[in-house]
Amino acid sequence: MKRKLFLTSLAIVSSLGSFAQSNEMIIQAKKPGAAIQSTMYGIFFEDINYAADGGLYAEMVANRSFEYPNSFACWDISGKVSLKDDGPFDKNPHYVRLSPSGFRDKHTMIENHGFFGMGVKKDHEYRFTVWARCPEGGNAKIWVDLVDNATMTDDQKLGNGGIDISGKEWKKYSLILKPKKTFEKAHLRVWGDSKVITDLEHVSLFPVDTWKGRENGMRKDLAQALNDMKPGIFRFPGGCIVEGTDLATRYQWKNTVGPVENRPLNENRWHYTFTTRYYPNYFQSYGLGFFEFFQLCEDFGCDALPVLNCGMACQYQNPEKTDQYVALDDLGPYIQDALDLIEFANGDASTTWGKVRADMGHPEPFNLKFLAIGNEQWDYKDNPAFTSRLKKFLDVLKAKHPEIKYIGTTGPDSEGSKFDMLQPKMKELKADLYDEHFYRNEQWFTDSVNRHRYDKYDRSKGAPKVFAGEYACHGKGKKWNHFNAALLEAAFMTGYERNADVVHMATYAPLFAHVEGWQWRPDAIWYDNLNSFKTCSYWVQYLYAHYKGTNVLPLTMNNKAVAGDSDQNGLSASAVINKPTGEIYVKVANISDKAQSIRLNLKGVKALTSGKVITLHSDNPIEENSIQRPDAILPVEKDIEVAGSILDTEVPAKTFAVFVLK
Hints:
Blueprint: H1 2-23, E1 24-28, E2 41-44, E3 75-78, E4 80-84, E5 95-99, E6 109-112, E7 118-120, E8 126-133, E9 139-147, E10 157-166, E11 171-177, E12 183-191, E13 198-207, H2 220-228, E14 233-236, H3 240-243, E15 266-267, E16 283-284, H4 290-300, E17 303-308, H5 332-346, H6 352-359, E18 370-373, H7 385-400, E19 405-409, H8 417-428, E20 433-441, H9 442-446, H10 448-451, E21 465-474, H11 483-498, E22 503-508, E23 512-514, E24 525-527, E25 532-534, H12 536-546, E26 551-553, E27 555-556, E28 571-578, E29 583-590, E30 596-603, E31 611-617, E32 636-639, E33 646-651, E34 655-661
Parallel strand pairs: 1-30, 2-14, 2-22, 14-17, 17-18, 18-19, 19-20, 20-21, 21-22, 23-24
Antiparallel strand pairs: 1-27, 3-6, 4-5, 5-13, 6-12, 7-12, 8-11, 8-13, 9-10, 9-12, 15-16, 24-25, 26-28, 28-29, 29-34, 30-33, 31-32, 31-34
Helix pairs in contact: 5-6, 11-12
């Protein structure tokens, strides 16, 4: 009997020894390492997939100032409607003239379709505004209707009201509309006076209930979703739109500030990029401009990272096309734009551009700390097309504003000739950080060499830090937002965290997509005119940002980093400490098809006092959230029992887990 008991005990000890050797994670809790930057996890905005107009920017009227190349695009007109071009706003000169038809039952009317319709909610308030006048004097009355002309109903009007217009001078008028039912595809109609000529400009409709209640505001649910992510950095306004297809259509920040009525329209390069997903009426109104971006950064409590054109249009569309690359000797105005932006963000209200900011309602500086020059530019074999221009910028900017950190780029690829050429040049040019982009398939995210990517980066003095500015895992077949892609992103991000001495910023991309207007996927947040949902990738970003910690803790398994190596059972892991709270956060991604028992051995800890685990899991790897099922996959939180300094637990198959240990 004693021999049998001894053998049983030996088997248990042997089993535990094997368990500890394979999946025991040693965490040096009393040896905090590199500081984790406040900017570590953030968001990147680009106006693709109707992210601005028709998305985050809450304006509901498309082509509100009649400035599209087809001036009546997105409008239906009826009766005597004519277009004029001597309006009150010099950068948006067009307006419409509504003249009486001369017949009792022949009405003059304009009707706007919005962005895939206008989503309105029952009993909610919507603010209609318009600049108007009676050019021949006198008084007129216009009628404004929100209508449902898509379903069979006795009365198409969802809500309506009238506005009295008076005098020859342009004035701004407003009206509150309150729909009697919820409808996703409403249109806006404006009826002219039956007796008096009336001119209309900048026809606009916003929900009253915008983010922070601002009149030129953001869509509340989408802004709230960003705020909930707790971003540390906000990169804007792109992306490829910074470059433009040509220099004439590059993004110019100065056109996006000042009175919203006088911000000129710009072409959006995404409306024609994909013939398979073509949107000919996709433009940038600039209603969401640099002032609003800085304001959102302030709202979210994060740093701003504006990106400026380096003097080159998109190289994909202009390979070595020198007429779309500004000559080095002609870069002065581009560099001045960068200097003026720093003044706009940080200058005293007595400065030229600081006054513009103050006049917009923000006399205090925005405290800009970072500035990126260029997006996905690169050099050619015998032509330093990008780096020669970046050097011109950095020579001036670093001399005049050494307090700002400047960010270069390693081009559009995560490896290969362009990357290998540019990475050492970022150090030579003394960029503070450089921007890496990688949209890669599932195999790339599972390869060991990529999981260990940042373990081998240059840590010598003067080496720039890394900004992973655009990345996402693209699933097999269609580029879905399925769970498995998000799980692989979570596993990869443990490499950011354990290498926080090298990686200072990371932003998933793209951020937004309209379900009827997308050109690129996957994306973090999707929406229609009334609803939105957060993808599995969103929740991965959310969990990393909420449990960011202050310092890296060394974590090893079998005496090496846990990065999904062939002998690590599909596990990737990282650990951090939050010094102010005394909490330790351990992130574990199990990409294998089997549940994995793990032991978290916290060296230097006498006893854990409390614990919980948050898991993101799906039994179906190609499951995804949707408008119809926005909560199909969500993080689930539960308390766990803890004692001593060792936690024996299990991470289910295909699961991302965050352990919070006090």
